Structure formats: structure tokens, C-alpha cells
């Protein structure tokens, strides 16, 4: 018979490592409401990883989910059945709404507290010296209150204990249930025998404090809202699909590639697609952190999770719902939050050694106290208190609670953590290498000095109506110019923007379309204004590099551009270490050379020529406008266009590392004090329950400090 050390968990053998894992397979998610600590993780992962119908299984304790890598289309029913056989309730993540109802913990907590206070009030009379019939009367009233309350309020412990006992295993809810039943049973026996002592108040207090601990842990987990949960909240449950001349409301999962959808103003884009209507304004702030509205022209792309501000509009989908960008982001975030970093593995190994050790100590305490005192009842209380107080819940929560809070905070700042160990590695970097073109600077259009103010107003109005980054690059130069009032503004894909100003046609775009020479031109009637193209440093680049240097990081800039261009940008930004005219292999060699000198390098790049360097660096980041290859190679993606995310990510990663180490310290200190107290008989089961709950809550509260500004 195996023994575990926490409510709802059963100790299992070692986790199957690595065999048959395939990162390319899709991930299925199951919700596990009954898992509580590292021993639960070992039990679930040990069972699932031993199966041949899946490639890998990874549990996220904070989110109470297991991500299963397996072939698409597999029925999860066998996995759910197998988990149920070892005492774990499981259901598919897509059914979360049906299982999201209140589990009744709060109601049970309230009833337990009410009954406990009333029984304690009755106990005062007994403690004050009531005897014989008066004492018996108060004991019977206490029994009438306590027994129904204990049966109802302790049901979560009873059901969990029964679910593992019927498969010949033990979990932490078994001794908890035993303690409650023994306290009530002995109290009832004392009452029927007109005894002096009854323990109804202890039974209810134990139930109350254990329930209170679980309720508070649940609230803390909800407060530590994850990036995956935030992303999932962006997807609407139902959408309006156009079928012939009718509009039909269907679940989002039924949306297929090529469907035509109708979106009202203020609704979220459910699936990636192309805008069919004349134009729309969209809000991408939830995905990228950018507050500016974006103009989308007919034929341009819409991404799942964006909000359509003007409507109604129609669009046709380019992928099915399950293949949307939002679904991929959710999967990436879930995998990152369930990471197995060095710290997570340390906690798992410690939990594996720790659980059998404390069970052995508990049994030894029972034997020694029974032989030494002859009081088996007191020895049993000490053994139960030892099992309760030494539950490694705090150790199990030490890493995943911090990882969930940190990745959630980064996502809300516009950064997606997509690598399993990115936070750990980012916290250790001491050198930042940034690509120049596309990361620190970009091509920008500059109007000629002799352009009239009226023409500048027309140019600004046309540029604001364009979604093309080169067209919009002229806006910073025109920030003090009032835009002109235009009519019939239309964006022509691949050409430019046109409109009517004071009855005259105006055009802004490539010269061939405008009808004037070469370059990018503004045409007002017959007048032409040629705009110069130059490299412009991003607005927040200087501040970002200052923050990086203030954090003690050495900053390098590398580029394939000419040395004179690199020198100009480096001088503007104050970068001392410049590497120009380097090809992709040379970029990779530079990263390897720095790391050979003992440096921990984070590489930031956006181009195809940065991919090799991104994969070789200790950690890597890519801007939101980077090529897909660069984003795939990066550990962190800046969903917006703000470089400030680079120091933010490093600062939060460092804060997360501090919180994890603090949590390990808290767990170690707790056990150093709690175990001797329990073994020496100074901790009753009630005190043990209070201490166990407090330790788990303390670790979770400390994890929430990661939300604070580093």
C-alpha cells in the first residue's frame, strides 16, 4: 500500500523521462481539480507517461491541469478513466464551463465556523465546572450540532479518502478523515458514558481550519491569473456565421476555414481571417499592449482576439477555430507555465524524498509513544498530527505559483513567454545583444523641408488612414501637424492611400501608382512631393538601453548593415559594443564567443538572418513584427512594438527567481520547526491543520509579490 502526503494525492514511482516525446504533436488538456502538491504531480505524470498512447504528460499545479502531448483526434476517455482509478477526478478543459460551478467549499466553511463557535460556547460551561446532568446536557447539545455539521462539512476529505482507499492506496485526506471521525466518535462515546471530556469542538475546529486553508488557496490561485487564462478569456464562446441569406449563431469550435462571419461593433474577432467589409478600426491592446486603434482595410488580415471598434463588418476565416493564432498562443502559454525548470525539478526531487521520510517518522512516532506511555490514543494523535503538519504542499507550490504569476504579468504587459525555461534563463543573463534594423531602428519617410503646411496636413490624414508600417512611419515627424479633413479615403493594397481634399484628388504611395518618377510620393492634384527615406531609431530605444545598462547588463549591437550606418545609430543610442557587416553565421559566432567567455547572453532580433543567433543564445526575444522564423526561435515574443518589454522581462524574471528561492526557504524553515513540534507531541491535529494551511497560503502570497514593480 503506497502512502502520499497531501489531500487528494497518492505517491507514485519515478516519472518516465523523455521517452517518445514529440514536441510537434498537439497538446490535449485535462482539468484535475483534486491535485494539491508535488506528490500529486508524480502520481499523475507517472501514470500517464507510462502509457503508450501518448508522448508526454506535464502537470501545472497552479492551474490544476495536465497537458498531454498525443496524436490529434485521440479520445481522452481512457486517460480520464485511468486517472479515476487512482483517485483523481479529471475532465476535458473544453468542458471547464460545466465543471466551473462553486464546489461548495465556501458554504461548508461557513457552516463549520458557525457550528464550531456554538459548540465552543457550550464548552465554556463545561470548562467552567459544570458537572453531572448539566455537563451531559451540554455535551448532547454539542453532539446534535457537531455530528451533522461534521458529516456535511468534511465531505471533501471523506470522498477523497474513500476514492483512494477503494484502490488500496492512502492519501493525506485519510488521516484527516480519521482524525475527524475519531474525535467525533470518542466524543460521542464519552457523552453516552457521561464522561468528563468531549472533543466535538476539536473535530469542528480541525474541519474549519482545513477548509479555510483550501478556500484561501483557491482564492490565491484565482488571483494569480495566468497568461493562458487571460488569452482564453479573449475567445468568444459563440459567433454569428452567415449561411446563405441567414445569420446563424454557432459555437466557436464549429467555425471552419472559409466561413463568413458577421461581427458587431465591440465584438472580438473569434478566428483569424480577412476583412470583407470596406474597412474597420480594431483594438489590439489585449494582445499587444498597444493602446492606439489600428485601421484595417478591406482585404487585410484580422487576428483572433482583436476587438472590432466599428461595425458591423463581415470577414471570411482563413483557418478553423482550433488553428487560430489565439489558440496557438494559449497552448504556448500553458506549456510555459507548466515548465520543468531546474527549480521545478529540484522541488519534485525533494518532494519524492520528503514524502516517504515523513511517513516513516509518523509511524515511528506512533510506535515510540505507544511503547513509552502505553497511551495508544495519544500516540495516534501525534502520528496524525505529524502527517498533517508535514504535508509538502508549500514545496509543491513554490515554483508553479511564481511561474504562473510571472508569465501572467508579462502577458498583460504585452510579452508572451513561450519557452519552458525562459524565466529561469532570463534571470541569469548579463549581456544583451540587439539586432539593429527592425529591432532598434526602421526605415522611415521624411517630408521635404519645403512642403507647405496644408500639404503636411493632407499627408498626415492619409498616413493615419493607412495600415502599412512604412506609410505610418511619417507620423512622428508630423505629430504637431493638424490632419486635413478628407473624404472618400481608401487604402489600395500594395499601392497607397487615396482621398479627396477640397474637391481635389490626393494620393500618397509608391511613385508608379501616384504617377511620378520613383520613390514614395504625395500628390495633390498636379503637385508632387517626394518623401525621403531614412533610418529612424525607435522612440523608446534610448530609454530601453539606459534601463538595461542601469540593470548592470552589457549591451551589444550587431547588424548586417554598413559600418557607417551602424556607427550613426550606435552613437545616437550610446552603444559601445558595435558589430557591423556581419552575416548570419557571424552573428551566431559572436554569440558563441561571448558565451565561451562565460557570458549569459540574451539575443533580441527580428529577421531571418537572426534565427541562428537566437537559437544559440542563452535566452532569446523577438519583436511582435518579427518574421515567423524568428518568433519560433525566440523564448519570449514582444507582442507589441515597445522595446521597454526587454528590460521588463528581465526584471520580472529576476524577481521570479527571488520569489522561488524565498519560497524554498519558507518551506525549509516551516519543516525545520513543524516536524520536531509534531514528533514531540506539542502539536495537536488542530494545530497541525492550521500550520499546514498557513504554510501553503504563505507561499502563494509570496508568489503574488511577483506582481509588484521589480
Automatic annotation (TrEMBL):
InterPro entries documented for this protein: ATPase_P-typ_cyto_dom_N, ATPase_P-typ_TM_dom_sf, ATPase_P-typ_transduc_dom_A_sf, ATPase_P-type_domA, HAD-like_sf, HAD_sf, Heavy-metal-associated_CS, HMA_dom
Superkingdom of source: Bacteria
GO BP terms: copper ion homeostasis
PROSITE patterns, per the entry: HMA_1, HMA_2
Gene3D superfamilies according to UniProt: 3.30.70.100, Calcium-transporting ATPase, cytoplasmic domain N, Calcium-transporting ATPase, cytoplasmic transduction domain A, HAD superfamily/HAD-like
Major subcellular location class: membrane
Coiled coil regions, renumbered to chain: none
Protein topology in the membrane: Multi-pass membrane protein
Domain HMA: 26-91
Transmembrane portions of the chain: 107-128, 140-162, 174-192, 198-216, 350-372, 384-406, 660-679
Keyword Transmembrane helix part of the UniProt annotation: yes
Keyword Translocase attributed: yes
Cell location: Cell membrane
Keywords (A to Z) from UniProt: ATP-binding, Cell membrane, Ion transport, Magnesium, Membrane, Metal-binding, Nucleotide-binding, Phosphoprotein, Translocase, Transmembrane, Transmembrane helix, Transport
Cellular-component GO terms for this entry: plasma membrane
GO molecular-function term, one example from the UniProt record: ATP binding
Similarity comment: Belongs to the cation transport ATPase (P-type) (TC 3.A.3) family. Type IB subfamily.
Entry protein name: HMA domain-containing protein
Originating species: Tateyamaria omphalii
Amino acid at each position: 500500500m503506497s502512502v502520499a502526503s497531501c489531500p487528494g494525492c497518492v505517491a507514485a514511482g519515478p516519472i518516465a523521462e523523455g521517452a517518445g516525446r514529440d514536441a510537434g504533436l498537439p497538446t490535449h488538456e485535462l482539468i484535475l481539480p483534486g491535485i494539491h502538491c508535488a506528490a500529486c504531480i508524480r502520481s499523475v505524470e507517472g501514470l500517464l507517461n507510462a502509457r503508450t498512447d501518448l508522448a508526454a504528460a506535464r502537470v501545472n499545479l497552479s492551474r490544476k491541469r495536465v497537458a498531454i502531448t498525443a496524436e490529434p483526434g485521440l479520445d481522452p476517455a481512457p486517460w480520464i478513466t485511468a486517472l479515476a482509478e487512482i483517485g483523481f477526478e479529471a475532465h476535458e478543459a473544453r468542458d471547464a464551463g460545466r465543471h466551473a460551478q462553486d464546489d461548495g467549499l465556501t458554504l461548508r466553511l461557513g457552516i463549520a465556523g458557525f457550528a464550531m463557535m456554538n459548540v465552543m460556547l457550550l464548552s465554556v460551561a463545561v470548562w467552567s465546572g459544570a458537572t453531572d446532568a448539566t455537563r451531559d446536557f451540554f455535551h448532547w447539545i454539542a453532539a446534535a450540532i457537531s455530528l451533522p455539521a461534521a458529516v456535511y462539512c468534511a465531505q471533501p476529505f471523506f470522498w477523497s479518502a474513500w476514492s483512494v482507499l477503494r484502490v488500496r492506496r492512502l492519501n493525506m485526506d485519510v488521516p484527516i478523515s480519521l482524525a475527524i471521525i475519531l474525535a467525533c466518535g470518542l466524543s460521542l462515546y464519552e457523552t453516552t458514558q457521561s464522561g468528563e471530556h468531549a472533543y466535538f469542538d476539536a473535530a469542528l475546529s480541525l474541519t474549519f481550519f482545513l477548509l479555510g486553508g483550501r478556500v484561501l488557496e483557491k482564492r490565491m490561485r484565482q488571483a494569480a491569473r495566468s497568461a493562458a487564462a487571460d488569452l482564453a478569456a479573449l475567445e468568444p464562446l459563440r459567433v454569428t456565421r452567415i449561411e446563405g441569406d441567414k445569420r446563424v449563431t454557432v459555437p466557436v469550435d464549429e467555425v471552419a476555414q472559409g466561413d463568413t462571419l458577421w461581427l458587431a461593433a465591440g465584438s472580438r474577432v473569434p478566428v483569424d481571417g480577412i476583412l470583407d467589409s470596406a474597412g474597420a478600426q480594431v483594438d489590439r491592446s489585449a494582445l499587444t499592449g498597444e493602446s492606439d486603434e489600428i485601421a484595417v482595410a478591406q482585404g487585410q488580415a484580422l487576428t483572433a482576439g482583436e476587438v472590432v471598434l466599428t461595425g458591423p463588418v463581415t470577414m471570411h476565416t482563413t483557418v478553423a477555430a482550433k488553428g487560430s493564432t489565439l489558440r496557438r498562443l494559449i497552448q504556448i502559454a500553458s506549456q510555459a507555465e507548466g515548465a520543468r525548470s531546474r527549480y521545478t525539478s529540484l522541488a519534485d526531487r525533494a518532494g519524492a524524498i520528503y514524502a516517504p521520510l515523513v511517513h516513516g517518522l509518523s509511524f515511528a512516532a506512533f510506535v515510540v509513544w505507544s511503547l513509552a506511555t502505553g497511551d495508544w490514543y495519544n500516540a495516534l494523535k501525534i502520528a496524525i498530527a505529524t502527517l498533517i503538519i508535514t504535508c509538502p504542499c508549500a514545496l509543491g507550490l513554490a515554483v508553479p505559483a511564481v511561474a504562473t504569476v510571472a508569465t501572467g504579468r508579462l502577458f498583460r504587459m504585452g510579452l508572451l513567454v513561450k519557452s519552458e525555461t525562459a524565466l529561469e534563463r532570463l534571470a541569469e543573463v548579463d549581456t544583451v545583444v540587439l539586432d539593429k534594423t527592425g529591432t532598434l531602428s526602421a526605415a522611415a519617410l521624411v517630408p521635404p523641408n519645403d512642403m507647405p503646411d496644408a500639404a503636411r496636413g493632407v499627408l498626415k490624414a492619409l498616413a493615419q488612414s493607412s495600415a502599412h508600417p512604412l506609410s505610418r512611419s511619417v507620423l512622428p515627424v508630423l505629430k504637431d501637424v493638424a490632419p486635413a479633413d478628407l473624404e472618400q479615403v481608401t487604402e489600395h493594397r500594395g499601392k497607397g492611400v487615396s482621398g479627396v481634399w477640397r474637391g481635389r484628388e490626393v494620393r500618397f504611395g509608391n511613385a508608379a501608382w501616384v504617377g511620378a518618377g520613383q520613390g514614395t510620393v504625395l500628390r495633390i492634384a498636379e503637385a508632387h512631393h517626394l518623401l525621403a527615406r531614412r533610418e529612424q531609431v525607435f522612440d523608446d530605444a534610448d530609454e530601453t538601453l539606459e534601463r538595461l545598462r542601469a540593470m548592470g547588463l552589457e549591451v551589444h549591437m550587431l547588424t548586417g548593415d554598413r559600418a557607417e550606418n551602424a556607427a550613426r545609430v550606435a552613437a545616437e543610442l550610446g552603444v559601445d559594443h558595435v558589430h557591423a557587416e556581419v552575416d548570419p553565421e557571424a552573428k551566431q559566432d559572436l554569440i558563441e564567443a561571448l558565451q565561451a567567455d562565460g557570458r549569459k547572453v540574451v539575443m533580441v532580433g527580428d529577421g531571418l538572418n537572426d534565427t541562428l543567433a537566437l537559437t544559440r543564445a542563452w535566452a532569446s526575444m523577438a519583436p511582435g513584427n518579427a518574421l515567423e522564423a524568428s518568433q519560433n526561435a525566440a523564448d519570449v515574443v514582444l507582442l507589441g512594438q515597445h522595446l521597454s518589454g526587454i528590460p521588463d522581462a528581465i526584471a520580472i524574471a529576476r524577481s521570479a527567481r527571488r520569489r522561488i528561492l524565498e519560497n524554498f526557504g519558507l518551506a525549509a524553515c516551516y519543516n525545520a520547526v513543524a516536524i520536531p513540534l509534531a514528533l514531540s507531541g506539542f502539536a495537536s491535529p488542530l494545530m497541525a491543520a492550521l500550520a499546514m494551511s498557513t504554510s501553503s497560503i504563505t507561499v502563494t502570497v509570496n508568489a503574488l509579490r511577483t506582481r509588484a514593480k521589480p
